[in-house]
Amino acid sequence: MKLWFKIVLLNVVIVISLGMLVGMAVRGAVTDAMRAELTREGESIARNLSNRIADSILLDDSYKIQEAIDDVLKTEKDIEYVFVTGKDGHLFAHTFKNGHPSDLMQWNPMDTNKLLSIQLLDTEKGFIRDVGVRVFGGMNPELHIGIREERIRQTLNRIRNLIILLTIVVTTIGSVLSFSLSRLVTKPLYRLMDFIHKLPSEEFGKSIVIKTRDEVGELAETFNKLSYELKLYKERMEESYKQMLRAEKLTALGRLSAGLAHEIRNPLTSIKVLFQTFKDNPALTKEDMEVVLSAAEQMDDLLTRFLRFARSDEFNLTDVYINSIVKHVIKLTEFQLKDRSIGLSLELSKLPPIKADRTMIQQALLNLVLNAIEAMHDGGTLTISSKMENGSAVVGIGDTGSGIPEDIRDKIFDPFFTTKGDGTGLGLSIVYNIASLHNGEISFESNGKGTIFTLKVPISV
After folding, report:
1. What percentage of the chain carries pLDDT values higher than 90?
2. What is the Cα–Cα distance from 62 to 91, expressed in whole angstroms?
3. What whole-number distance in Å separates Cα of residue 98 and Cα of residue 424?
């Protein structure tokens, strides 16, 4: 619900509530005033008529009494009925056209010691105010006049209609004014909200101009300062990141250089020893030459792996089918699987082609499969699965080996880290680098019953 609508709705509720309260108060005050006035009027009419017919009651002259009553009815339009009781307390004269009600004497019974009695009667014709006066003190004759409250009802209806009309008019005017005022208030807020929403996606440092000297203007000024501070913070963070990246590259270069030097030192040592021997004894045996060639091949293989690991931008994106590469890797490792008595379990799902470098993906999967084979010294089961997950092709390669020790799990993707005596420590590092180049990721789960490596590659890089 929009803020302007809430403001308009609140004002409408307030106006209607005030209209109802004022209407109820005015209605009550007018009703009380008119009933008091009607009571005084009825009391005056009853006393005047009582004085006029007093002698006629003593003379039992019903004609004179009826004539006096008719004169009153001609001038007073609010009178519903008039009746008079005689000296014996029975009905003596009345104005009821179709006969008097049987319970007439019980409508407003008067105490013999009271000279005036007023009672509000609820009849079929509405509320009637019965005003009774005793013609002679301590005697039976009574005069009762019933005054209709129709005038009060009509007046109250007019007041109600007037209040409703005024409420509608005030509500309409108030709604228009509230809408205009709310739009005037909320327009800067909407501009500020739009500025805040766009701030993260756009360049920090932008500002918004709101020329109001209220809380909204102060809030806009605060966000302008925040935008500027965020710009400075972003610039400092970018500079810090660049420095950190340079330091990280230097650190990584140092670690790679140290590892590469360490790995090359062993075959170089063998060659150095042989050539020192050759210096003293120029005759080299066939076995010595094989050692030299093996050491040279070892260094060449190490440098090749190092270049594959270090390469970051030389890859060719094409449509690649993961399941096809998996099957090709299985053929390449078929001899190792049979040699170690390792069973194969394939759980391949139908996958769409992905944008990737086929050679790199094949290298990554081959390294993972070879690692899994080497982890199962006494045979086991190699499980390879593929599926789609959140827009990525996911390949899982699991073994039933002894698992990866807890203390080295955070190091297995580090370059030149290996637990094998003849390993280079670049296999998993190459896999990690290939996954990063494809905006993917490599993860693993391991326990005492085996290890599962999971390679995720997005459909489109």
Report:
1. 11
2. 11
3. 126
Euclidean distance between CA atoms 163 and 248, whole angstroms: 80
Comparison of pLDDT for 260 and 321, the residue scoring more? 321
Report CA-CA distances (Å) from 373 to 340, 419, 422: 8, 15, 16
- Biggest CA–CA distance in the chain, Å, is 177
Stated pTM of the model: 0.41
**How many angstroms separate the CA atoms of 220 and 226, rounded?**
10
Neighbours of 428 (CB within 10 A): 22
| Domain limits, the chain | 3-98+110-158, 315-458
Q: With a cut of 80, say whether residue 271 has pLDDT above it.
A: no
| The architecture CATH gives domain 315-458 | 2-Layer Sandwich (3.30)
- Alpha carbon 392 to chain centroid, angstroms: 30
Q: What is the average pLDDT value for the chain, to the nearest integer?
A: 78
Report the chain's terminal Cα–Cα distance, integer Å: 41
Instruction: Calculate what percentage of the chain has a pLDDT beyond 70.
Output: 72
Taking the C-alpha atoms of residue 71 and residue 75, their distance in angstroms, rounded to an integer, is 7
Structure tokens at 137: 């003190």
Tokens of 81: 């009925």
Cβ-contact 458, 395 below 8 angstroms = no
Contact 72, 45 (CB under 8 A): yes
Burial class from Cβ neighbours inside 10 Å (0-12, 13-18, 19+) for residue 17 reads exposed
* H-run or E-run covering 31: helix 3-58
Into which CATH architecture does domain 3-98+110-158 fall? 2-Layer Sandwich (3.30)
135's CB contacts (< 8 A; 6+ apart) are 50, 53, 54, 57, 84, 141, 142, 143
3-state DSSP helix/strand/coil % of the chain, to nearest 5: 55, 20, 25
The pLDDT of residue 346 is 92
CA atoms of 69 and 93, how far apart (whole Å) = 9
More confident residue, 129 or 3: 129
Sign of the Cα pseudo-torsion (177, 182, 184, 185, in order): positive
Q: How far apart are the C-alpha atoms of 436 and 321, rounded to whole Å?
A: 19
**328 near 297, Cβ under 8 Å?**
no
- Convert the pLDDT of each residue in 40-81 to its tens digit: 888 888 888 888 888 888 888 888 888 888 888 888 888 888
Phi and psi at residue 69, to the nearest 5°: -65, -40
Is there a contact between 121 and 107 (Cβ–Cβ < 8 Å)? Answer: yes
Alpha helices in 199-214 (DSSP H): none
Report which of 331, 359, 368, 333 is spatially closest to residue 456, judged by C-alpha positions.
368
